[in-house]
């Protein structure tokens, strides 16, 4: 006699599936990031060096948060859903005040793909409208690339999303009971890149505008606009800078980035004027002052090629 296997009730199957997914996510999660207090109520959550890979789980960008009288402002959301959860756990290790908002500074995967972890907790994600536009146009491809280089498991739960809030200009944020300024300088290191200034401590979260001991990426930037933004940052006379990548530092980092951009432009313009080919530009554009910086062999070589094409186009259309 054949015995018929009793079908699993739908409610039980759904519960088992959810439990299995939760266990998978838990197993994939890395330890919470250790917050570094830079000033009273102002914290940095440091990223790793290098390019995203399976070893660093793609978590190469800095994030941070500011604790005010009535809540917390999170600055950048991490590389993945699981990274976003780790950042939230780090915030929770410092304060039980609610996170009121997550503010994304620029369009790089390591700063925005953790948004789902914040949104599932009812925390709105806010970014400049031009950042949102660039994200929508290309970040599906970014996410596929991240899964290839980091692996599927660290990227569990990570998905494209639309920001809950957008803005177009400088603004004062008062929702945490502490004055914070979102600063937009026009198209600089990227079309919608912003910096975030905690007014009370004079700590600046520089996002894509500044990297420390790492080669800045010009792919989305405009050099004249970037220089204008750096001049505006210098005028702020901030006490401490949290760069997009690299350790927290002083405002001297502004001069370091300016020197790199200036030397890159001078060298590559000379290469173009000499009639050398695109194939040779990276080797002809070595900048010894920056050779020890993180990503010199990758980002600097790409920068040289990007700059070459831009300057060559300028000559063609003069």
Structural write-up:
This protein is an alpha/beta fold and 318 residues long. The chain is built from nine helices and twelve strands. It has one domain: Metallo-beta-lactamase, Chain A (4-Layer Sandwich), CATH 3.60.15. 39% of the residues lie in helices and 16% in strands. The protein has a seven-stranded mixed beta sheet with strand order 1-2-3-4-5-6-7. The chain is globular, with a radius of gyration of 22 Å. The relative contact order is 0.11.
State the main characteristics.
12 strands, Metallo-beta-lactamase, Chain A, 39% helix, disordered N terminus, five-stranded mixed beta sheet, single chain
Write the layout of secondary structure elements.
Layout: H1 10-28, E1 36-39, E2 42-45, E3 63-67, E4 72-75, H2 81-92, E5 99-103, H3 109-112, H4 115-119, E6 125-128, H5 129-150, E7 165-167, E8 171-173, E9 180-184, E10 194-198, E11 203-207, H6 223-236, E12 240-243, H7 252-273, H8 281-284, H9 296-316
Parallel strand pairs: 4-5, 5-6, 6-7, 11-12
Antiparallel strand pairs: 1-2, 2-3, 3-4, 8-9, 9-10, 10-11
Helix pairs in contact: 6-7, 7-9
